[in-house]
Write a structure and sequence with these properties.
Blueprint (H helix, E strand, L loop, with lengths): L4 H22 L15 H9 L7 H8 L5 H7 L10 E4 L2 E5 L3 H18 L8 H9 L7 H17 L6 H12 L5 E5 L12 H4 L2
Antiparallel strand pairs: 1-2, 2-3
């Protein structure tokens, strides 16, 4: 399998520039300058170059050649706070999720919009990101609040582009949605007889 470091480098740069442009419209322009910098690290860059295809994430193709396990994904998602995996923990056979913070949720929106354009520019439409997220979110472990906020952001983009995704709009939306749900969500991965340990008294009060 041949490696394509130059093509991969150009794709990453193109994707980052689009994320930064999206971040400008979302009110997080300077924040997005830090987007995906770990992709340039040796732990990610060389393996991703090896699995470069140009029409999708190298992580997907790495998985297909390594029994579905991706070293790149493990390195990347625990160093980039706009990924839902960053907000997961494991305890007694459960996956514990906490809400994605506001700014990283918006960075994820900018990321998905950028990826939708970068990988499939000719067929990109205003509903592309919403369709993608609706398709993949059933496989994600995230809180109800995070899922609803992201879905609504993509829906707004589908309906009116960035018009209703200004910072004042999304901050209000984020607070409104998060107020309806708990801060955490617990998923059972298998049938478990072992109970979770009791919460400390200060946690019970929340």
């Amino acid at each position: 399998m041949s490696s394509h470091p130059f093509k991969h480098f150009l794709l990453v740069i193109k994707h980052r520039h689009q994320v930064i442009r999206n971040g400008f419209h979302l009110g997080i322009f300077f924040h997005c300058f830090r987007h995906d910098l770990s992709k340039f690290s040796p732990a990610e860059f060389f393996t991703s170059s090896k699995y470069y295809k140009g029409n999708g994430s190298p992580v997907y193709y790495e998985r297909l050649h390594n029994n579905y396990y991706s070293k790149v994904c493990q390195h990347h998602t625990k160093r980039n706070k706009h990924h839902w995996e960053y907000y997961t923990d494991f305890l007694a056979g459960r996956i514990i999720c906490i809400n994605m913070p506001y700014v990283y949720s918006l960075e994820y929106v900018a990321d998905v919009l950028s990826a939708s354009k970068t990988y499939n520019k000719k067929d990109f439409k205003s509903e592309s990101a919403l369709n993608y997220f609706n398709d993949v979110k059933k496989h994600y472990y995230m809180t109800d609040g995070t899922e609803e906020f992201l879905t609504e952001c993509f829906r707004r983009y589908k309906d009116s582009g960035f018009k209703n995704l200004k910072k004042k709009d999304t901050k209000k939306l984020y607070k409104s949605i998060m107020s309806k749900y708990p801060d955490t969500k617990i998923f059972d991965t298998i049938k478990i007889d072992r109970p979770l340990p009791p919460l400390a008294n200060d946690e019970k009060k929340k």
